């Protein structure tokens, strides 16, 4: 059982807290994605699991065994780096065989394992090439292959697709997911790309400034973010946030007013101000009970949709529209006010 558990893990650099009391459990065979902006500490968490960074406080367990004082090579993990970390003077075959040679495996066993993994990753015809003769996607597959041949308990991947072009990233996302299903091993994957997080993870852990803000399935986190940061981080375009005043159980958006329902009144509990959260795709709701007009500032065509930007209560907003929607200078937007999200103006927590 390749279960990974972090208990009260903290990392401090030069008196600055980088990772703050993280508690996290990654179940056996799970694909967990650590996602957050650059510098939030997600790669540091991965490196502490690998043993490449010391832990200031707390404990890390792999298969119920504390690994705090166990050397990285003895943790039975494989690390796939952002920059591939291939040996330039070695062939693809030699790069993939290297970790097995370090284990002093027999030559015929190494040969069989390398060729087996090369076939899985469609690298058989490239085994005699050097890294400089490969494309970015091929190099990334070699890096994955070098990790797979070791048959580790846990795969750790640190932004492995960030150096690839957009089309290749989409292809490699699919390949890594298929690989996970085939290998049935625990994967812990770090990215700053929210699309990767939503499409790849069984669960997602959203991190801000060294603190895990929310853990859940992509569906849970997208539809029920725990706070404004999580709501705004996941989704493209991101969630709209509209500042609004509450007067006699009513709220106005661009001078058009709607009344709160009983559940919303209970949630808001007499508050005078609130932040309304609305996903761009929820502005043109077929079950709408509230409409308002607004001027379109700019628009973008994305092929399968178009995005129009506007202001609501002087807050910048975006709406996702059908590609054939005929935009005028003014647009009429429709909302179902019963489905709105409300965030506290002080704590930013979901109410």
Beta-strand proportion: 25-35%
The total count of helices amounts to 9
Query: In sequence order, what are the helices and strands, one letter per element?
Result: EEEHEEEHHHEHEHEEHHEEEHEEEEEEE
Largest sheet: 6 strands, mixed
Q: Helix fraction? A: 25-40%
Overview of the structural elements:
This protein has about 350 residues and is an alpha+beta fold. Helix content is about 25%, strand content about 35%. It has helices spanning about 40-50, 90-100, 105-120, 135-150, 165-185, 195-200, 220-225, 230-235, 260-270; strands at about 5-15, 15-25, 30-35, 55-60, 65, 75-80, 155-160, 185-190, 205-210, 210-215, 240-245, 250-255, 255-260, 275-280, 290-295, 300, 305-310, 315-320, 330-335, 340-345. Strand 11 (about 240-245) and strand 12 form a beta hairpin. It is elongated and about 80 Å long.
Task: Name its key features.
9 helices, 20 strands, 26% helix, six-stranded mixed beta sheet, single chain, alpha+beta, five-stranded antiparallel beta sheet, 351 residues
Characterize this entry briefly.
The chain is α+β, with helices and mostly antiparallel strands and 351 residues long. The protein has helices at 42-50, 92-102, 107-120, 136-148, 166-183, 194-200, 218-223, 228-233, 262-268; strands spanning 4-13, 16-26, 31-35, 57-62, 65-66, 77-80, 154-158, 186-191, 203-208, 211-216, 240-247, 250-253, 256-259, 273-278, 290-295, 298-301, 306-312, 315-321, 330-335, 341-343. It is elongated.
Task: Produce the secondary structure layout.
Elements: E1 4-13, E2 16-26, E3 31-35, H1 42-50, E4 57-62, E5 65-66, E6 77-80, H2 92-102, H3 107-120, H4 136-148, E7 154-158, H5 166-183, E8 186-191, H6 194-200, E9 203-208, E10 211-216, H7 218-223, H8 228-233, E11 240-247, E12 250-253, E13 256-259, H9 262-268, E14 273-278, E15 290-295, E16 298-301, E17 306-312, E18 315-321, E19 330-335, E20 341-343
Parallel strand pairs: 3-8, 3-9, 6-7, 7-8
Antiparallel strand pairs: 1-2, 1-4, 4-5, 9-10, 11-12, 11-14, 12-13, 14-20, 15-19, 16-17, 17-18
Helix pairs in contact: 2-3, 2-4
């Amino acid at each position: 059982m390749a279960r990974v558990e972090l208990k009260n893990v903290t990392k401090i650099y030069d008196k600055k807290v980088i990772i703050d009391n993280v508690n996290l459990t990654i179940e056996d065979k799970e694909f967990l994605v650590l996602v957050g902006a650059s510098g939030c500490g997600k790669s540091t968490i991965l490196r502490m699991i690998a043993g490449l960074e010391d832990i200031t406080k707390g404990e890390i367990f792999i298969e119920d065994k504390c690994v705090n004082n166990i050397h990285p090579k003895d943790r039975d993990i494989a690390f796939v780096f952002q920059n591939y970390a291939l040996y330039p003077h070695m062939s693809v075959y030699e790069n993939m065989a290297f970790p097995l040679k370090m284990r002093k495996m027999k030559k015929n066993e190494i040969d069989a394992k390398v060729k087996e993994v090369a076939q899985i990753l469609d690298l058989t015809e490239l085994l005699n090439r050097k890294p400089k003769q490969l494309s970015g996607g091929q190099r990334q597959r070699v890096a994955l292959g070098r990790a797979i041949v070791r048959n580790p308990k846990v795969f750790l991947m640190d932004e492995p697709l960030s150096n690839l072009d957009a089309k290749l990233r989409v292809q490699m996302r699919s390949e890594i997911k298929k690989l996970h299903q085939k290998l049935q091993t625990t994967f812990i994957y770090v990215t700053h790309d929210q699309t990767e997080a939503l499409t790849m993870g069984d669960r997602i852990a959203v991190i801000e400034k060294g603190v895990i803000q929310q853990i859940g399935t992509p569906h849970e986190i997208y539809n029920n973010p725990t706070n404004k940061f999580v709501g705004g981080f996941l989704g493209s375009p991101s969630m709209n946030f509209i500042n609004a005043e509450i007067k006699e159980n009513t709220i106005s958006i661009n001078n058009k007013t709607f009344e709160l329902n009983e559940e919303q009144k209970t949630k808001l509990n007499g508050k005078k101000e609130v932040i309304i959260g609305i996903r761009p795709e929820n502005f043109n709701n077929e079950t709408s009970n509230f409409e308002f007009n607004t001027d379109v500032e700019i628009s973008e065509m994305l092929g399968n949709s178009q995005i129009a930007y506007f202001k609501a209560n002087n807050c910048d907003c975006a709406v996702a529209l059908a590609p054939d929607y005929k935009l005028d200078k003014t647009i009429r937007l429709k909302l179902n006010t019963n489905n709105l999200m409300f965030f506290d103006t002080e704590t930013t927590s979901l109410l």
